[in-house]
Write a structure and sequence with these properties.
By secondary structure, the protein is an alpha/beta fold. The protein is built from seven helices and five strands. It has a five-stranded parallel sheet with strand order 2-1-3-4-5, sandwiched between helices. Bound molecules: flavin mononucleotide. Flavin mononucleotide (FMN) binds next to helix 1 and strand 4.
């Protein structure tokens, strides 16, 4: 059982990072092997829509994303975490998500070889925004959840929290607990 955490904030040690750590702690407690990827430490270009992946099954861009795609394929669950930037996801998270394109053929079906490894994969999301109304992050939820629904991944849920200063979320144990439970759920659904 592998749970992969994708950290989409450029602020390492910030709120998204702390909540993702909580989620991964929950997954570890439930018996999963966990790994966290800090997108800001990776070189990930935007999708070029060159269609090479539609034909050959692999991405034409030689950067860090193909390695991350392998880790996604190997994981049983992927939990994403990131802040709201201008009512949307960060550039790091968007570049990453657009590169999921490499998993699909020209008709937006999974490539035959990735389908068995993506089918039923669990996917979750943590968002943080400064706005006290956490629904300011709804566009990010929409993006990830619709992607999951469209591709028949199993959506395990969302943790939406509000915080501004770096690490401020540590003062919100309820959000930390919610993230922990999301991680447990990521690791335990198989037995449910
Ligand atoms: C460039 C930028 C844009 C932001 N835009 C928004 C926004 O539209 N709505 C909001 O509620 N917070 C916004 N914020 C605040 C962050 O979402 C907030 O500080 C969050 O806690 C940062 O999370 P992090 O510590 O994981 O980076 C923005 C912050 C930055 C740096």
């Amino acid at each position: 059982m592998k749970v992969l955490g994708i950290m989409g904030s450029p602020r390492i040690g910030g709120n998204s990072d702390l909540l993702l750590d909580q989620a991964l702690a929950g997954a570890r407690e439930a018996g999963a092997e966990v790994e966290k990827i800090l997108l800001v430490r990776k070189k990930i270009s935007g999708c070029l829509d060159c269609k090479e992946c539609n034909i050959g099954g692999s991405c034409a861009i030689r950067d860090d994303m193909p390695e991350i795609q392998q880790k996604i394929l190997e994981a049983d669950a992927v939990i994403h975490s990131g802040p709201v930037y201008f009512w949307a996801m960060t550039a790091q998270l968007k570049a990453y998500l657009d590169r999921w394109c490499a998993f699909f053929d020209a008709d937006w079906n999974w490539h035959r070889e990735v389908y068995p490894r993506m089918k039923g994969k669990r996917i979750g999301l943590i968002t943080v925004c400064a706005d006290p109304n956490v629904h300011t992050a709804d566009p990010i939820v929409h993006s990830f959840k619709t992607t999951a629904d469209f591709t028949k991944l199993r959506w395990i849920g969302t943790v939406m929290a509000s915080a501004t200063g770096k690490g401020e979320i540590a003062g919100n144990p309820a959000a930390g607990q919610e993230a922990f439970e999301l991680g447990r759920k990521a690791a335990m659904l198989e037995q449910a």
